[in-house]
Amino acid sequence: MKICFDMHTHTVASGHAFSTFKENVEEAAAKGLYAMGMSDHAPAMPGSAQEIYFGNFKSIRRELMGVKIYTGVEANIMDFNGTLDLSECTLKKMDYVIASLHVPCIRPGSPRENTDALIGAMKNPYVKIIGHPDDDRYPLEYDRLIPAALENRVALEVNNSSFNPRSGRQNARKNVAAWLAIAREYRLPIILGSDAHVYYDVGELSEAIKMTEQAGYPEELILNAREDGLDYILNCR
């Protein structure tokens, strides 16, 4: 499978990542990516960038080194209603928003509460992607989550970093296999994300690809597998 873009990448601005924006773009170019998204963590993540950082994306060129650049954010879900940690004024300036559950930002709840949090975030018109819905620390009701994603035209992410043995997320392979089986029945468009926190992981999606292949997921429903998959992310509302 040829991967055309990676929308889930982090720079040193996230506070716990190790590469610059330039280094990430260089890696994307070296791997022949058509496009790259920058999605640093929003302010509620300890050590991450403040709101003013995301408000200055007008400084970023739309293409560098032959790679189309899209500016986004990985927003933190702050409560079980799906409230995010950036103002609407800032969110509307983003090309796209990933919304995720992170332990430093929200305590894990029951499967129903965690699912309510993600569905609430999906209803935000700026949210295009739900990040890493695969962690047993945040058990989910996938039979509710998948139809809600389809209804709200939000892509669920198969997160490559979740399969790293050193990841803090728990039982990702089991959980991704479970939700892909349901999503396949709904023909839900999905996205693969590297969640790169160091330059050499930009575009590294090999484990995520294996998971989709094992699930028999239709390639036409994997947004990264074609350039026009970006349309679903950037213009899906």
Describe this structure in words.
With 237 residues, the protein is of the alpha/beta class. The chain is built from eight helices and eight strands, in the order E-H-E-H-E-E-H-E-H-E-H-E-H-E-H-H. The protein has helices at 21-30, 51-54, 88-91, 111-122, 142-152, 172-186, 206-214, 229-234; strands at residues 5-6, 35-38, 63-64, 67-76, 96-100, 127-130, 155-159, 190-193. Strands 1, 2, 3, 4, 5, 6, 7 and 8 form an eight-stranded mixed β-sheet that branches. Helix 3 links the parallel strand 4 (67-76) and strand 5. Helix 4 runs parallel beside helix 5 and helix 5 (142-152) packs across helix 6. The longest helix has 15 residues, at 172-186. The two termini are 27 Å apart.
Total beta strands: 8
Percentage of residues assigned to helices: 25-40%
The N- to C-terminal Cα distance equals 27 Å
Main sheet overview? 8 strands, mixed
Shape annotation: globular
Number of helices: 8
Indicate the low-confidence ranges by residue numbers.
none
Order of helices and strands, N to C? EHEHEEHEHEHEHEHH
Pfam families: PHP, PHP_C
Protein name: Phosphatase
Domain Polymerase/histidinol phosphatase N-terminal: 5-79
GO molecular function, one term: zinc ion binding
What labels would you give this structure?
8 helices, 237 residues, alpha/beta, eight-stranded mixed β-sheet, globular
